[in-house]
Amino acid sequence: MAFKKIQEQLKEALEVQGIKDPLPFQKAILSKIKGGSSVFGIAPEGAGKTTSIIISTLQKLECTAFEDAPRALIFVKDKESALALQSEFERFTRRMDLRIYPVYEEHNIEAQRNEIFEGVDIVIATPKRLSKIFYLNGINLGKLKLFIVDDAEFLSKPTPFSDVIRIPESLDRCQYAIFSTKFDARMERMQELFMANAQIVEVGE
């Protein structure tokens, strides 16, 4: 079954990448995210979680830049993960004007604040650095539409978990999507704190 009811630019980008039909996990989760539901996406490696993040984000942002404040925030484990996800996004956004910005510890924080202030659409961040920038009033999350965690296994460590769960306390209306290979105690805690109405979409091996 081909992808349905997606932005024309996104459809073209998928065709360029040779992606014609959704994988079972993508088929299960993309319609829920598109419909506005918060989700826990649980699936093994290779199920299409990263591509699901990219498709969902581009669809939600209508494949175009808008104002200055970011509309999507994606948490990742470390610098390497941030740069890798940025590169994956850029495969799909070559003909779009979306601004994608990675935030991680191994970069000057003042430079990061300035570049975010100039205007970004998608921020891909490590929890520690994003938390620091946020509490320095270096990022406006008032326009945020999507809050995503990619490969959430790294949240098993207390510090990144704490940095992630503090952010929703300051958000008004936002859609959440947490992707992982398993639903564990940390996710149960997120469910209690800010994802009470989230759906669990799980596809096995």
From TrEMBL:
<dbReference type="InterPro" id="IPR014001">
    <property type="entry name" value="Helicase_ATP-bd"/>
</dbReference>
<dbReference type="InterPro" id="IPR050079">
    <property type="entry name" value="DEAD_box_RNA_helicase"/>
</dbReference>
<protein>
    <submittedName>
        <fullName>DEAD/DEAH box helicase</fullName>
    </submittedName>
</protein>
<keyword id="KW-0067">ATP-binding</keyword>
<keyword id="KW-0347">Helicase</keyword>
<dbReference type="InterPro" id="IPR011545">
    <property type="entry name" value="DEAD/DEAH_box_helicase_dom"/>
</dbReference>
<dbReference type="InterPro" id="IPR027417">
    <property type="entry name" value="P-loop_NTPase"/>
</dbReference>
<dbReference type="GO" id="GO:0004386">
    <property type="term" value="F:helicase activity"/>
</dbReference>
<feature type="domain" description="Helicase ATP-binding">
    <location>
        <begin position="30"/>
        <end position="201"/>
    </location>
</feature>
<keyword id="KW-0378">Hydrolase</keyword>
<keyword id="KW-0547">Nucleotide-binding</keyword>
<dbReference type="Pfam" id="PF00270">
    <property type="entry name" value="DEAD"/>
</dbReference>
